[in-house]
What we know:
By secondary structure, this protein is mostly helical. It has one domain (about 10-85). The protein is about 75% helix and about 0% strand.
Amino acid sequence: MVRTTVSIRDDTFAAAEQLALELHLSRSELYSRALETLLDLRHERGLRDQIIAAVLTTPTVDDEDEPFLHAGSAAFGTLLERYML
């Protein structure tokens, strides 16, 4: 485990302190979880960008495949909206 010192705006610190109390977490645990969440979101966005790039570079499909492509695109759009990736 690494110990570190960071500078945080007063209002952000106060809000974090309140949240830690509400969640029954130590300050260190709250900050660790917040940073892990941010890193996970960044990784997910990277995956999203890779998927979008793959979809955009997909060659033209046959007419019989078009309904599946539209259904997949709609489902993917719903996932993007739901998880705000």
